[in-house]
């Protein structure tokens, strides 16, 4: 096979695709944090409606995890740890806030959160790629072998 066509080690596989994946995954977290900042009362109301205590702390925690975690993921800094944290956050929020699976909309949100967790686990397993702050600082990388 021609080296230019070898998907195992080309720049697309080791640089561009991991960057695109991180940016797309980070987008939903950053966008969600901005939405919570824009309408904090709605988020606190939703937290309260789910029977959870301390909606102000829940709001602050969610904004922190989503905004900081999303930005760290986008830039590829401490990527594996951040991806694991965001995966856990995605599963917890799926179970706490989207557990009414008889409602098709809630089922879709539950599955979306679980799918995001799966993608984040892939990032944790295979690393951020060569276009990341982790790569620039020499953090250990493990790239997928196809």
Summarize the structure.
This protein is mostly helical and 146 residues long. It has helices spanning 11-38, 40-49, 55-75, 79-97, 104-126, 133-136.
Amount of helix: over 70%
* Span of the ends, CA to CA: 14 Å
In percent, how much strand structure appears in the residues?
under 5%
Count of individual domains: 1
What characterizes the major β-sheet? none
Class derived from helix and strand content: mainly alpha
Low-confidence stretches: none
Helix tally equals: 6
H/E element sequence: HHHHHH
Q: Please identify the oligomeric state.
A: single chain
Radius of gyration based on Cα positions: 17 Å
Number of strands: 0
Overall mean pLDDT: 90
The gross shape turns out to be elongated
Organism: Pseudoduganella violacea
Family: Belongs to the DoxX family.
Membrane topology: Multi-pass membrane protein
Pfam families: DoxX
Please tell me about this protein's structure.
The protein is built from 6 helices and no strands. The protein is mainly alpha-helical. The protein has one domain. The longest helix is centred in the first third of the chain and has 28 residues, at 11-38. It is elongated, with a radius of gyration of 17 Å. The chain starts with 10 loop residues before the first helix and ends in a 10-residue tail after the last helix. It comes from Pseudoduganella violacea. Belongs to the DoxX family. Keywords: Cell membrane, Membrane, Transmembrane, Transmembrane helix. It is found in: Cell membrane.
